Amino acid sequence: MAEVYTLLGRRIQEERKARHFTQQELAEAAAMDTGHLSRIEHGKAIPSISVVKRLADVLGVPIARLFSDIPPHKSPDDGWAGKLGAMVKEMPPKRRDQVLRVLKALAKDD
């Protein structure tokens, strides 16, 4: 997950430099501390979405552009979900419905 913030920070830094802003100029325009901006750019601070939005607005870019190089998050697993999905996919529809009912029953909070 830390990689996400490093990539976001790098993108903010690239956009800032492309527009010839210093960190101080961008921080002031976005109403934030220069040290905090530096930590964001280096992936050492996690910015709130409102901070990212303010930075995007000052930089004149859509907020999505700041996330454009960030790969989608994939939850780590041991492959069981894929194996289960493949098994269920091979079942006849009636059996799939039974499996779904059993899983729903097991997932209910007692």
For the report, how would you describe the main beta sheet? none
Q: What's the number of helices?
A: 7
Secondary-structure-based class equals mainly alpha
Average pLDDT works out at: 89
Distance between the termini: 33 Å
Task: Choose one word for the global shape.
Answer: elongated
Beta-strand percent range: under 5%
Helix content: 55-70%
Total strands: the figure is 0
Low-confidence stretches: none
Give the helices and strands as they follow along the chain. Answer: HHHHHHH
List the quaternary state of the chains. single chain
Rg over alpha carbons: 22 Å
Topology:
Layout: H1 2-18, H2 23-29, H3 34-41, H4 49-59, H5 63-66, H6 80-89, H7 93-107
Structural notes for this entry:
With 110 residues, the chain is mostly helical. The protein has helices at 2-18, 23-29, 34-41, 49-59, 63-66, 80-89, 93-107. Helix 2 (23-29) crosses helix 3 (34-41). The chain is elongated, with a radius of gyration of 22 Å. The mean pLDDT is 89.
